[in-house]
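Figure S4 source data
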Amino acid sequence: MRYSNLFGRATKSELKEDLSTNAKFLIKGGFVDQLMSGSYTLLPLGFRVVKKIEQIIREEINKTGAQEMLMPLLHPKDVWNETGRWETAKEVMYQFKKDDKEFALSFTHEEIVLDLIRKHAFAYKDFPIKIYHFSTKFRNEPRAKSGLLRGREFLMKDLYSLHTSVENLDKYYWEVADSYIKIFKKLNLDAKIVEAAGGVFTDEHTHEFQVLCETGEDKIFYCEKCDFCQNKEIATVQENDRCPKCGDIIKSGNSIEVGNIFKFGTFYSKKMNVHFMDEKGKEQLAHFASYGIGLTRLMGTLAEMFHDGKGIIWPSVVAPFQVHLISIGKNADKVYEKLEKDGVEVLYDDRDVSPGEKFTDADLIGIPVRLVVSEKSGDKIEYKERISEEKILLDYDEVLEKIKTI
């Protein structure tokens, strides 16, 4: 991609002072545009990052046997009335009336999934059912002041599973939890599994996936020696207490929630009459769980955590491009064409602007490798990684080999 042709480039415009770190870098870098508080457009750079996050999630979730689909975002009131959440989740939902009929925009899809299952699955042989989609969610967030970490409209992967027994549900529940940890590790995020409240989803305790971050809005209490970890909302311990599991010292820290999983049992199945016939021909309630990861929130989390004073430092697996190629007083078209031919994702800054502006924008955008072609570099290419100040001159083939290691 030639930077001169890219829609949505880095901006020098002054931004609101109350914007969060992730919002400032993502807006200034040309990844997103803010339409209003809690609502962002993904520009081409941001869209590339989110699609890479999506693919990492897809690959891991598919390994659990789940099947991808797509469900509607516009829901009739009737289906939400069956569980009572039209009223109990009223504050978080966007509800409206059109032609004497009432609707809601999706803030989650439990009711929609259960409606699907009772239409298409009837016997124990149809279970377990594991289905998921990537879609937009709408939530009436009263404090949409943390950039992409707390949005009113955002992209999410939500997975739903139904089972014939508690044991089978439990097994899959923790299989998904393991998949989530693998996903976050691929993104260079050290996520903790945290016991938490169920919010508008359930009265039972659930599990969140939290990453420690100084600017995070959540607070968790955790043990470094074992896996004990609780959200402050339900915490039975405080900092410096003894861990109830292993006796080590409890620590606390601010954190960002990057995923959650909910075990509902038969609570919603009973309300929506979702049954199956067991081996003996007896009608049984299905056991239900749901699992969510916010894609745009993850992009915001990465920008919030991985940056310096110059800009974002993307993990290589989700960077919008592998290489940021810069030409200074010398045409780099041939290098650009060779990189593309060799399958390298490259952003080529071919603009007629000062070298300083090109370098500043490269640091802001945060692509892992910067290549410079100039009179100074001669017949070689200057190679520099975003996380390092070291610059080295390499032949093209050496550059290609080095890119493969990033």
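Figure S5 source data
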Amino acid sequence: MKGYYKMPEATAEAIDKEGWLHTGDLGEVDENGYFKVTGRIKDMIIRGGENIYPRELEEFLYKNPEVMNVQVIGISDKKYGEQVLAAVQLKTGKTASAEDFIEFCKGKIARHKIPKYWEFVDSYPMTASGKIQKFKMREIFEKNIRLRLSFRS
């Protein structure tokens, strides 16, 4: 890739001086030399200095038989920098609570990776091309959490 069409600033951000394209993807290489995308750098959650990869948590939570879809995002937090939030879309006819999911996680993933916030949703904000807009989710849920916390005070 030589650059973005008529977007020199975006090109300068994505392509370094040696000509390497920085996509923002995280990945791994298997024993056969194949690359697998495992997440996005901009989606990484930093909670109290610990790096938490949303895709890793999403893949774990998909193992729960109640889950149809799940998206994990970071929510701003004064003490830890970010907290983990899981927005869960349950399968039709299924019910579950945050406590059920916390129990599901205990002993199977590190404690600091267990989401502090659990939201149960019917859908996610999407682009016209069908991609989930995590930045919009973050805006919506941060606002909702601030409102809930202000009512408790």
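Strands lie at 25-29, 35-40, 45-47, 50-52, 67-77, 81-90, 117-120. The CA atoms of residues 62 and 70 lie 7 Å apart.
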